[in-house]
Amino acid sequence: MTATAPHRPFTEQHIGHTELRDTHRIDLRRTERDAFADARPVDWSTLTWKDAGRPYRVENWSSQKLEWEARHGEQLPVPEAWSMFNRSFQSLFDTNPMQARLNALKKAGVAVTKRELRAAWEAMGEVVQWTVWNRAQRVEDTIWDPRAKRSLFAGLDVEKPRILFLGAADGYEAMLLSAMYPGGEVVLVDYDAWCEEGRFGAFPAAYPFLGSDPRTGAERVWYREEMNIDFVVSDIRDLPYGREFDVVVSIGLVEHFPDAYKPTAFEFHRRFVKPDGYCVMTTPRLHPRTRMFYLLFGDLMNFSYRELMDVRQLGLYAWENGFEVLRHGQIKTHNGVICRAR
Ligand SMILES: C[S@@+](CC[C@H](N)C(=O)[O-])C[C@H]1O[C@@H](n2cnc3c(N)ncnc32)[C@H](O)[C@@H]1O
């Protein structure tokens, strides 16, 4: 059993346990609830875009993007947009939302007493944002969503897999996979060099991942530092690998490619997966709650092209781009598919 130490505070004795930390939830509960919900079977070969409809585009842009474009007289380049996104998104994970909400409430109170109505209005906007972030990330864990993701990732026929995470940012899902299928190797790829320290490096080292023990097959708690992970700063297009990975995963990547570039996005996955390997892809769901999230957090999140779609649309893109869809369904805020190159 893993020793209890400050940097490894949870052991197998804590399986089934959940608790709230300042910025996130610890969740070692098994996946009886919050599971990946398999959607109804679909005959992808006969589904048409007329039946499935088209994704919704999020177009309320961040003021940072608009200011950059006004200053430079051109569209914000995509890598620059990701660099802004990563710093901005990570700032949410790094903040204690209850404390930030309290600070914003005090700010609003002071502004009201000074009759500074604009400042009071802006501070109330911050109060709403921190209230929603507290619920979405910390209380309901809808972003990391470990229980549903474990359920989505379950049952892959792999042993000591080589896992490639395209557009890895904090690398969360690859760590979840590595705990479930231990003993292999993980390669995280992101062209935003800052992510290696600023996102992956900033991920709480004491966060426990529920997985299995390769020697016994029993449940085991894993930590990031125990995993064999490489962070590669590179454009996906420039990676030197062939079809050598057992699992290629992307979380929130393909919806950033307009239809003309979707084949490129799917080709990214096919290029590196073994013929009998798996591609795991998720995209944010088209749902009133996600639409509301991207509306409320537009200033912090919307730096580049983004679609919200349903799982039939994600599956149809995968099918059209040469993948067999083995499994499709929904986790809390994302759609998920497990595919194999046809
Ligand atoms: C939306 S994020 C993925 C979501 C991620 N799970 C998170 O928590 O933010 C997409 C990531 O892919 C990276 N990315 C986008 N296009 C890329 C490319 N062509 N090569 C390498 N990384 C890329 C971005 O820098 C960004 O960190």
Automatic annotation (TrEMBL):
Q: Name one Pfam family in it.
A: Methyltransf_23
Provide a Gene Ontology MF annotation, just one.
methyltransferase activity
Q: Which InterPro entries match?
A: SAM-dependent_MTases_sf
Report the protein name in the record. Answer: Methyltransferase type 11
Keyword field: Methyltransferase, Transferase
Q: Give me any GO biological process, just one.
A: methylation
* UniProt-listed CDD domains: AdoMet_MTases
